[in-house]
Design a protein that fits this description.
With about 170 residues, the protein is an alpha+beta fold. It has helices at about 5-10, 25-35, 55-70, 95-110, 120-125, 130-135, and strands at about 50, 80-90, 115-120, 145-155. It has a single domain (about 20-155), classed as NADH Oxidase, CATH 3.40.109.10. This is Nitroreductase.
Length: about 170
């Protein structure tokens, strides 16, 4: 059986080098909408999506993320859009809820011609003093935890080939 959604899931790859060109507003809105339709525990919709396209804010988030990683390289690979997903840590499924939001956005990005990559370390960034100040500045309550970053743009590299699926990925019992 084959359909468009399964095809997108098979074809999507993480991209680690982006052009400076910004994605379109129409593409961004479609990707954000897909995030809002991710399943969440008991339908609580606890995650928040921060859409960041301001270069200075992206640069700050990149610096904070790189510091967690212990490097000064750009962990966002030059992507012109960064979507930060946060979720209410008071919900027992907050990590899963936020992860599903990111997964939906990664697949939606591919479906509208935008390249993407999931970037970790959002939890550590927003647990730090500077990250906490940013959340306060943006009016986000302190009980929200960073789940991840979804970077978006148009690739400036060859499209990677899929790695073979591992043996015994699926075990029937």
């Amino acid at each position: 059986m084959d359909n468009a959604i399964l095809k997108i899931m098979r074809e999507r790859r993480s991209i680690r080098k982006y052009k400076k060109e910004q994605i379109t507003e129409e593409q961004l809105q479609a990707i954000l909408e897909a995030g809002t339709y991710a399943p969440t525990g008991m339908g609580a919709q606890s995650p928040l999506i921060l859409a960041v396209q301001e270069p200075e804010v992206i640069s700050l988030l990149s610096r904070l993320n790189a510091a967690v990683m212990g490097t000064d390289s750009d962990p966002f690979y030059g992507a012109p859009t960064v979507l930060v997903v946060l979720a209410d840590r008071n919900r027992p499924t907050y990590v899963e809820d936020g992860s599903l939001v990111i997964g939906n956005m990664l697949n939606a990005a591919h479906s509208v011609g935008v390249d993407s990559c999931w970037i970790h370390r959002a939890r550590e960034v927003f647990e730090g003093d500077e990250g906490k100040r940013l959340l306060e500045q943006w009016g986000i309550p302190g009980h929200y935890a960073g789940i991840g970053h979804c970077v978006l743009g148009y690739r400036d590299c060859e499209y990677p080939a899929a790695k073979p699926r591992k043996d015994k990925y699926i075990i029937r019992v």
